[in-house]
């Protein structure tokens, strides 16, 4: 749970990133649970700039500038999101045991599912990831051995919605 406290100031700093860009913003949620079941939750609503923290015995919120992240702000072992992508959500699940945690990054990409999938396949392979077809997306392990899934769905024409999940 101590490492969680280092993340809360980072959320406040992130909330100020790219605050002048148009759009809906990026929402971030971080959840931590210790072995006793005590849960800690922090979130940033990128649309409103509201930061909320809920701890055992305490909860609070404050308003900060809106948050906007794009594909270049995401780095999974050297792989960024498809160029021009906009991050729509980030969920981090932290546990006292790092093998039980993970992260999910939701995004919109300005290209068809086939183009986005092929782009990721090439980037993952060039970065030493294992790559398997999984529905319209991909799955495998990163070069550090963490399991990942990339779920993609068409959003009409040259637009794709995706969720990249990485364990650990």
From TrEMBL:
Q: From what superkingdom does this record's organism come? A: Bacteria
The name this protein carries in UniProt is Lipoprotein
**Which organism is this entry from?**
Stakelama sediminis
């Amino acid at each position: 749970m101590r490492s969680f406290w280092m993340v809360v100031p980072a959320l406040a700093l992130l909330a100020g990133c790219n605050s002048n860009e148009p759009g809906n913003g990026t929402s971030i949620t971080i959840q931590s649970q210790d072995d006793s079941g005590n849960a800690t939750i922090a979130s940033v609503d990128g649309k409103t700039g509201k930061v909320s923290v809920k701890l055992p015995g305490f909860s609070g919120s404050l308003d900060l500038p809106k948050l906007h992240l794009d594909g270049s702000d995401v780095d999974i072992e050297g792989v960024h999101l498809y160029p021009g992508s906009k991050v729509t959500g980030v969920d981090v699940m932290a546990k006292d045991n790092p093998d039980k945690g993970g992260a999910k990054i939701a995004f919109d990409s300005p290209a068809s599912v086939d183009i986005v999938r092929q782009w990721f396949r090439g980037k993952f392979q060039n970065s030493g990831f294992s790559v398997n077809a999984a529905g319209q997306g991909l799955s495998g392990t990163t070069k550090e051995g963490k399991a990942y899934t990339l779920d993609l769905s068409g959003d009409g024409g040259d637009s794709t919605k995706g969720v990249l999940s990485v364990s650990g």
